[in-house]
């Protein structure tokens, strides 16, 4: 089974995400969207149409989205089969969150690494 196929996003906390995003826009040329982050579009052998993205997104410093981790960041990894991978991780003794989110944006699940960091696993919708 394929496990991680790429990085889906980099998320991090900031005391002022809007000001930080503006700094990145002005000084590094990131095209920050209305939702507060950037979607870097790319293509590859598994995705020749270039419909895939890697997200970059600052969050408010007091967000609980990264909980139970106390880290100031969270990495989102693209996966080919979220439910299969979560089952495999559970069988391997990993700490896997019970919650799975499914929407038009794909399927999302979470595992906690040995350092206590919450890792987001994302299976994009078909064709993305």
Task: Based on the model shown, name its key terms.
single chain; 128 residues; 2,3-Dihydroxybiphenyl 1,2-Dioxygenase, domain 1; eight-stranded mixed beta sheet; 45% strand; Catechol 2,3-dioxygenase-like lactoylglutathione lyase family enzyme
Protein architecture, described:
The chain has 128 residues and is an alpha+beta fold. 17% of the residues lie in helices and 45% in strands. It is flat. The protein has 2 helices and 8 strands; from the N terminus they run βαβββαββββ. It starts with a strand and ends in a 5-residue tail after the last strand. The chain has a single domain, classed as Roll (2,3-Dihydroxybiphenyl 1,2-Dioxygenase, domain 1). Strands 1, 2, 3, 4, 5, 6, 7 and 8 form an 8-stranded mixed β-sheet that branches. InterPro entries: Glyoxalase_6 (IPR041581), VOC_core (IPR037523). This is Catechol 2,3-dioxygenase-like lactoylglutathione lyase family enzyme.
Brief characterization of the structure:
By secondary structure, the protein is an alpha+beta fold. The chain has helices at residues 17-28, 82-91; strands at residues 4-14, 38-44, 47-60, 73-79, 95-96, 101-103, 106-112, 118-123.
Q: Classify the helix fraction into a percent range.
A: 10-25%
> What is the CATH C level class, in words?
Alpha Beta
What is the ordering of alpha helices and beta strands? EHEEEHEEEE
Low-pLDDT regions: none
Number of helices: 2
Silhouette? flat
- List the domain count as a whole number: 1
The average pLDDT score comes to 90
**Structural class, from helix and strand content?**
alpha+beta
Question: How many DSSP-defined strands?
Answer: 8
Largest sheet features: 8 strands, mixed
